[in-house]
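Annex B. Sample input.
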Amino acid sequence: MLLQIKDLNITHLKDLREILNGFSFTLNPGDKAVIIGEEGNGKSTLLKLIYDPKLVEDYAEYTGEIIRGGSMGYLAQELTQFQKQMTVYEFCSAWPAFFNLTPRALGDIASELGIRADTFYSDQKVGSLSGGEKVKLQLACILMERPDMLLLDEPSNDLDIDTLKWLEEFINSCGIPVLFVSHDETLIENTANVVIHLEQERRKTKSRWTVAKMPYAQYISERLSRLAHQEQIARKERSDYEKKMIKFRQIQSKVEHRQKTVSRADPHSGRLLKKKMKAVKSMGRRFEREHENMTQIPDVEEAIMLKFGDDIAVPSGKTILDFKLDRLSIEDRILSENIELFVSGRDKICIIGKNGIGKTTLLKKIAENLLARQDIKAAYMPQNYDDLLVADKTPVEFLSVTGEKDEITKIKTFLGSVKYTSDEMEHRISELSGGQKAKLLFLKMILDGCNVLILDEPTRNFSPLSNPVIRDVLKSFGGAIISVSHDRKYINEVCTKVLELTPNGLNEARI
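Annex B, continued. Sample output.
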């Protein structure tokens, strides 16, 4: 037993919301346990608390017991601003094991992760690395420490497809238990043998958790089947109950009517009716008890509700983008040359490529081109949400344009449709989870009536349960989409064309 949690309760300090109640779990050798749940349900909070309670003490409190039976390697979802300002060498130097390993050992770790051995000594700022390069650097430093177990918070974020496949193999073969959070359904399907599902019911007023020792696909299949069966039984019981109640009310009404009309000269009939009414009331109490003991209709978190207007569309022959770039570079480093991209009508383009090749940099240039256009309504969803969001504003303030009462009501209705509680609508954006921030950006696109979307990793912060909904929304979107993604389900289900960014430009690709 490397990790044991007993009767863990977690409460959010600001709104006193119950995040977890009575949670118990044991991480054993061989376990590859994934934590799933909707955005804001406490997945990252649970990982942080297990690793170091100080990481959550400013916004959550807990009771219960966490028994750690070995050393932990923890990969955070986000680097701090201080870490981003470090050079790569300074970042690595902060890990004690860095200076205890031979150059050959460091080279083996670099090779395993698909990075150059001299990367560890680079003067490049950590903040200037691509998203995938940041993840690889953190993983490399964690592996230097030789931990007994791994806690990984969104390790799949921003990894290229080849590295995602490597990560799957790494999780399956690393020889130590792994507890992780991920929104990548393919990764989860290919690795997890334990599922921890955190749910918030009744508009996030009651928490529920499930631990299932089975693969993810099996868990989802059995859960949906169980819920469907439970709902079928519950609805049949209610239908039968209503039929009984109709007959009961008819009998009750007849007896009451006869009691009112019985003659005082017929006391025998009066006594019989009184006795019958007593039996009717007894029957009513029995039906009430049956109603109380009925099978409950499943009370689960429903998928988020997002939808662009049916009027959002662009003509099939309209040129959305005719883009040419001789050279794509960062500082003095040339990433790619002779880039050409033509987009028209309802094209849904996905750009893939190795980490560090410049996909996000290219998408920013495309966004600058399209956002300036007057003949289309374009929106840009960056990889770093804080580039657009205002940390000190509330979600309502961010989405509001006029501040008028009707607009505020509409905004709150939209926020409610994507599972924001009334309290969360008044939280500062800086306090929201990555998934809640992503919802906010999607809502702004919808409210603004955008018909061209430039999306950098659009599904990266949505839960595995919400991602199918997001894919359906984007697949049915009547405008054009130009995106960067490594989400294999998104690429296969949504995109009409996949292009790989290489040193020699954009080339058609297959996944």
